[in-house]
Structures are given as structure tokens and as C-alpha cells.
Write a structure and sequence with these properties.
This protein is mainly alpha-helical. Helix content is about 90%, strand content about 0%. It contains two helices and no strands.
């Protein structure tokens, strides 16, 4: 083994130092700057990516907040429109109910007047028929023709007593 030959030991140490210095200079001048540049670019790219991700995150949060705000406003508008529509429908129903009640009242009053007129006409007709029947009855029983005014007065008196 040549490493164990002590006579060759000093030149080996010298060559080892020369090789080490040469490799150090080559690596420090050529390879290490390239590696440093790659590491620097990588670090700046990572910083840029992190900043971009933070910016996108902030934009996403702002967009989400705007979305929630828009949804809240839309719900509020929908509730307001729903309340307005309900109020309009209630007003329309009230108006129609009032119109129906007015029509029903008018028809009821017209019918009541017609019934009152029919009742008055029927009562007058009943009085006339009662006077005629009483006159015929008196004529058959007495054999003479009674006075129409007297018969009408007697029927009216009988009607007053009945009430």
C-alpha cells in the first residue's frame, strides 16, 4: 500500500493540498456560482409564489366577502319584495272584499225593497180580496148587496184587532 510508505508521504500531502486547492478554485469559480444562482432564483421564485398565493388568497377572501354581501342584499331585497307583494295582495283582497260587500249590500237593499213592495202589493191584494170575499159572504147571508166602503172599513178594523 503506497499510503503507508512513509517516504512517499510528504509528496502525497503536497499533491493532496494542490488538488484540494485546484478543486476548490474550480468549484468556487465555476460550479458554486451556478449553484448559488439556481438557489437564488429558486428562493426568489418561492418568495414570488408565496406573495402571489397570499395575493390570490386576499382576492379570494374579498370575492367571498362580496359574494356574501351580495347574497345578503339579494335576500333582503327578496324579503322586501315579498312583503310588498303580500301587502299589495292584502290590499287587493281588501278592495275586492269591500267591493263585494258593497255589491252584496246594494243587491240586498234592492231585494229588500222588492220584497217590501211585493209584501205591500200582496197585503193590498189580500185586503181587496178579503173585502170582496166579505162582501160576497154578507150578500149571500143577508141577501142584499153591502156597501163596499163599510166592508173595507170592517176588514181594516179586523186587521187592526188581529195585530
Amino acid at each position: 500500500m503506497p499510503q503507508l510508505v512513509f517516504a512517499d508521504y510528504a509528496p502525497q500531502v503536497v499533491w493532496l493540498a494542490i488538488t484540494f486547492v485546484a478543486l476548490y478554485l474550480i468549484l468556487s469559480r465555476l460550479a458554486l456560482p451556478g449553484i448559488a444562482r439556481v438557489l437564488g432564483r429558486r428562493e426568489s421564485q418561492l418568495k414570488g409564489d408565496i406573495e402571489g398565493a397570499e395575493r390570490l388568497k386576499a382576492e379570494a377572501e374579498a370575492t367571498l366577502a362580496a359574494y356574501h354581501k351580495a347574497m345578503t342584499e339579494a335576500r333582503a331585497r327578496a324579503q322586501a319584495e315579498l312583503k310588498q307583494a303580500a301587502a299589495e295582495m292584502a290590499a287587493e283582497a281588501s278592495r275586492r272584499g269591500a267591493s263585494f260587500a258593497a255589491d252584496a249590500n246594494a243587491k240586498t237593499k234592492t231585494a229588500e225593497r222588492a220584497i217590501a213592495a211585493a209584501k205591500t202589493a200582496a197585503l193590498a191584494d189580500i185586503r181587496r180580496m178579503a173585502s170582496a170575499a166579505a162582501g160576497q159572504l154578507v150578500a149571500r147571508l143577508s141577501g142584499g148587496e153591502p156597501d163596499a166602503a163599510e166592508v173595507s172599513a170592517a176588514v181594516a178594523a179586523a186587521e187592526r184587532e188581529r195585530r
